[in-house]
Amino acid sequence: MVRSLVIKATAGFDAPEPCNQAFTVAATAAATGVEVSLWLTGEATWLALPGKAKEFELPEAASLEDLLQTVLAAGKVTVCTQCAARRGFGAEDVVPGIRIAGASIFVEEVTAEGAQALIY
After folding, report:
1. With the CA atoms of 111, 10, 55 and 38 taken in that order, what torsion angle do they form, in degrees rounded to the nearest 10?
2. Sheet with 98-101: strands ordered across
3. I need a surface site. Which of 10, 24, 40, 60 has the fewest CB within 10 A?
4. Per DSSP, which regions of 19-93 are E strands?
5. Which residue range forms the structural domain that includes residue 29?
């Protein structure tokens, strides 16, 4: 059975610690061979735009840009369709490799055999 971890990040610049925790867990899991899917929803959606992860700062924390690149290299990063639309951007606006998808894909991933889900 393939291990998979679906992480939903709901916080961004508004709540740096839970945001960073989501990215740290996702990158750590990806680096250890776990199949990772990181979902950016709510305020975390902004971090899908070029340069935004680089602007993120949290003392004593790893670079969010580096964590994002680790997840992109070994897993999937998805932005919620409705969250992106509410913020006025689409697939052409996000960092290359990040996709935009809806709730049906999220449900498919979290209900897959062997999947575990975390929400931050």
Report:
1. 0
2. 98-101, 76-80, 35-40, 4-9, 115-119
3. 60
4. 35-40, 76-80
5. 4-119
Domain count, the chain: 1
Domain containing residue 91: CATH number: 3.40.1260.10
Mean pLDDT of 93-118: 95
Whether the CA torsion 13, 17, 22, 28 is positive or negative: it is positive
Is 90 exceeded by the pLDDT of residue 30? Answer: yes
For tokens 């889900």, the residue is 117
Mean pLDDT confidence for 97-120: 95
How many residues can be counted in the chain?
A: 120
